[in-house]
Task: structure prediction
Amino acid sequence: MSYPVTPDGVLLVDKAEGMTSHDVVALVRRNLQVRKVGHCGTLDPIATGLLLITVGRGTKVQDLLMSEDKEYAGTFVLGVTTDTQDRQGEVIQQRPVPALDENQIRAAFEKFRGDFYQIPPMVSAKKHGGIPLYKLARQGKVVEREPRLVHVYRYTIDRIVLPEIDFSVLCSKGFYVRTYVHEIGESLGCGAHLKSLRRTKSGRFDVANAISVTQIKDAPREEILSRLLSLPDVSRMRGA
Result:
């Protein structure tokens, strides 16, 4: 296949549920007919929302874009713990959910504000000896993971209908929302797992300005290219 002249820039994509981040890269590569395509900050298949896709020379700013803070909105379920810390995993423990009030729930969230350490979950893309942890987990292996320093700038508790809680969180790069939810559940004494998650922001970029996966599938190449942010645009938006 002969490829047209490679465009350069960043495409904001609203990832659909059930897709991997690599699925989105493959879709953009195919529909834009561009070889050099990457992504910033993996989203799990159950997660939706903002995925920054780098195209052409845009891949050179990938590390810069990945270092930005992220904002998420999600829902977790108390009383059920899974091996992946989300609803896709095997249930490993069920516990009764106490009659918690908002103050008790807020106190648990408060324990995970500012700087603290997280241990990456076994089912994650983080590598151990060059092998992604999720591949080792599939083989039934559990390896020691280095705790990493993360930061929560702010959170909101948006809805409490036990056993479900809706929340949002603004956090540093490398933050695992699944692990955050798991630890809040443990702090409340009944465990929890992530039911749904949506990334709403990454740095200065907002999902409100993103193109949907359906649009990428259906729109002509020129229309998708018109949504591509140029590298000077990206630099200005980052305040660089």
